[in-house]
Every structure is written in structure tokens, then in C-alpha cells.
Amino acid sequence: MSAASTEGTVAPATADLTAEQRQRDNVAIVAIPVAMLGLMIAIVAPLLVSLALRLTTLDATSSAANLSLVLGIGAFVAFVVNPIAGRLSDRTTSRLGQRKPWIFAGAVISYVGIVVIAFAPGVWAVVLGWSISQLGFNLALAPLVAMLPDQVSQGARGKVASLISLAQNGSAVIGTYFVQLFAIGLTQSLLPSLIGLVVLVLAVLPIKDVRRAEPPTDRLSIVSIFASFVFDPRKHPDLGWAWVARFCLITTQFTATSYLTYFVIDELGYSVAEAATKVFQGTLLNALGILLTTFFFGWLSDRTGRRKPFVLASAVVAALGLGIMATAGTLTVLLVAELVLGMGMGAFLAVDLALVSDVLPDDGQAGKDLGVINIAQALPQSLVPVVAPAVVAGVGYPGLFLGGAAFGVLGGLAVLMVRGVR
């Protein structure tokens, strides 16, 4: 890792931990997942419900196409910002630490975008607001994820990663719960995200952030900025395969969530007014599935010292959930599909994040390297909205969901190629 003071260094991978490191683990196991929960609530509430309903209010006939436009542009912003934010946080010499300044700034910027969406007079303003939100969200997300290898010893990463996964996925339930409490309007658009961002800031405050003792020796240049988007898979093949696995599984997840509101309306026959509650019920079952698997498999992964078998199994289960969703003609079948999908995705994201942390190069660029990994999380959010309308028009929602299931299987196979972990 790059030069850092004793106030923060990368957690040791040994079993014999110092008292300081044990304290870091104890703080991180609560603070990082709670911070992730708050951040995800802030962005998931509009992603799953508010955006679609706002666009329906502005232009009901073109709302699906407009949602693709908004999500696609926003995901491109995420694609660009996330790795750059990680690289900048690696280089930061603030007295607050490397990660906290970016997390706090990102929270403020993200909420500015939410406000723009709430008052948007047209689709173009929604595009602008969502882009601003994605800018702020990813300014905060990349440094927050980098806190896992910064703060947590290797033997506890599966446990903390499982809680992060639980927070990421459970946020959908809490976010949609808040949304459906309010009638369509400003309170529905503004309050859930505000609550989430307040939780984020309060959770991050007690973390003893990494601090650089000296500024980086290399200059920040256009070339180095572009280098934020890549790593050499020949030099770090395990990181490359981990990237592929995450890309495939996030494609699976986003295929299931991005058009869920429209699926409930178009295929299951519910009204716009009923859609928010039905989506909440689906995400509630999804969260139940996550609760059934996430923490257990994260703990078991730490206990056995193995990552790959759990990632493979969870990828197959997630793909099965999408397969069931493809056959859903009733709300009951959809809820079963959400339960199975949650069981798979929750376990995958828990163990996968620990696996990625284990294979990171020890080059002082954890933020940058995790930012590149996070491209695998952002890129499907750009591609799925572009491809989905044509897929739905050609083969319907079943074809869309089966395509997502196929990506899940491919993701499970990709993780078998990782050699640095068992």
C-alpha cells in the first residue's frame, strides 16, 4: 500500500491480530455495512420505483423507453466516475483520511440529483438529475468499498462482506417500503433518499480512516486518469476472472430489477397505483432469500477458507431464480422467483466481495483496483437498458429473464478460473 500513517493501514492477513486491528474489525463489521445500507437506500428507492413512476407521470406512453434512456446515461456516468473516484481516494492526503472526504462529498452531490428529479419538468431534467445522482453515488461508493481491504483483516472479510451484501440487497426492501408509504409526489421522491444519506454519514463517522503520510510521488495526468479504467489481466489474471464473474452476475441481477415495475404493470396487470406495493412485496421476498443465505455463507467461507465453491453454487441459484421469473404469470410465482434470486445473489455478492479483496494486488491502489471491479457492476446498468427494449419486443419478458439466467451460469463458471483462492 502507498505510504500511510499508523492511523490506517491495510489489515493484516495473519491469524495473530493486534489489539488495534481487532478494534478495527469490530468497528468495521457494523459501520461499513450500515453505511452501505444508507447509501443503497438513497439510490435504490428511485432506481426501483420513483424514477419509473416519475417518468410515467411526465409521459405515460413513452415511459419505458425514457427509463432506458435515463438508466443508460446514468450508468455511463457511474462507469466513468467510479474508478476515478477510487483512484483519487487512493491519492488523497486530507486530515479526514483517504476515503471519508469523497464519501461525504458524494452524499451531498447525490441528493442534489434526487432533488432535481423531484422537480423535473420534463424527461431531459430527469436525465440530468439521475446523472448528478450517479456522479455523487459513485464518488461515495468507490471509497466506501475500498474501506473493506483498508480496515478488515483477511480472516474476517467474508463476514463483513456478507453483511455488506445483506445491506446492499436489503436496501431494496427498506427503500421501496419508504416509497410506498407516501403518495406519488415530492415526499415520495425526496424523503427515502435523504434518510439513507443521513444513515451513511453517521455510520462512516466512527471509522478510523486510512491517512497518507506523504503525497503520491507520481503526478496525476490524463494518462493516469485513463489508467483508472484498466488493469493488466495477464499480470493479474485472478482479478480479471473476478471481474468477469461479477459482470455476469450483476447482469443477472439488473435484468431482474430494472424492468420489474413495468413487468408488474404490463404482464401481471396491476395499475400504476398498485405497482409500488407489488414491487415492495417482491423485494421483501428477495430480501428474505438474502437473509437465509448471506451471513451463513460469508461465515462458512471464512470458516473453511474457501470462496469458489460458494460463489459457483450461489450463481447457479441466482440463475434458477431468473428462470422461475421467466415463467411468472402470477404474483405468487414472481414472489417465489424473487425469493430464489435473493438466496443466490445475496450469497454471491457476500463471498465474491471477499474473494475480490483476497486477490487484490498489494500495490497501494485498492481504491483504483476496486473501482475497476466496480465497472463490472456499473456496465450492466448501461447495457441492459439499451438491449432490454429490443429483447422484450422480440421475445417478451421471458426471453429477457432467461438471458439474465444464462449470464448467471457464465458468472459461476468464470470464478472457477480464479487460482489465487480455494
UniProtKB/TrEMBL annotation:
<feature type="transmembrane region" description="Helical">
    <location>
        <begin position="64"/>
        <end position="81"/>
    </location>
</feature>
<keyword id="KW-0812">Transmembrane</keyword>
<feature type="domain" description="Major facilitator superfamily (MFS) profile">
    <location>
        <begin position="26"/>
        <end position="422"/>
    </location>
</feature>
<keyword id="KW-0472">Membrane</keyword>
<feature type="transmembrane region" description="Helical">
    <location>
        <begin position="312"/>
        <end position="334"/>
    </location>
</feature>
<dbReference type="InterPro" id="IPR036259">
    <property type="entry name" value="MFS_trans_sf"/>
</dbReference>
<protein>
    <submittedName>
        <fullName>MFS transporter</fullName>
    </submittedName>
</protein>
<dbReference type="GO" id="GO:0005886">
    <property type="term" value="C:plasma membrane"/>
</dbReference>
<dbReference type="InterPro" id="IPR020846">
    <property type="entry name" value="MFS_dom"/>
</dbReference>
<feature type="transmembrane region" description="Helical">
    <location>
        <begin position="280"/>
        <end position="300"/>
    </location>
</feature>
<dbReference type="Pfam" id="PF07690">
    <property type="entry name" value="MFS_1"/>
</dbReference>
<feature type="transmembrane region" description="Helical">
    <location>
        <begin position="27"/>
        <end position="52"/>
    </location>
</feature>
<keyword id="KW-1133">Transmembrane helix</keyword>
<feature type="transmembrane region" description="Helical">
    <location>
        <begin position="190"/>
        <end position="207"/>
    </location>
</feature>
<feature type="transmembrane region" description="Helical">
    <location>
        <begin position="399"/>
        <end position="418"/>
    </location>
</feature>
<feature type="transmembrane region" description="Helical">
    <location>
        <begin position="102"/>
        <end position="121"/>
    </location>
</feature>
<dbReference type="InterPro" id="IPR011701">
    <property type="entry name" value="MFS"/>
</dbReference>
<dbReference type="GO" id="GO:0022857">
    <property type="term" value="F:transmembrane transporter activity"/>
</dbReference>
<feature type="transmembrane region" description="Helical">
    <location>
        <begin position="243"/>
        <end position="265"/>
    </location>
</feature>
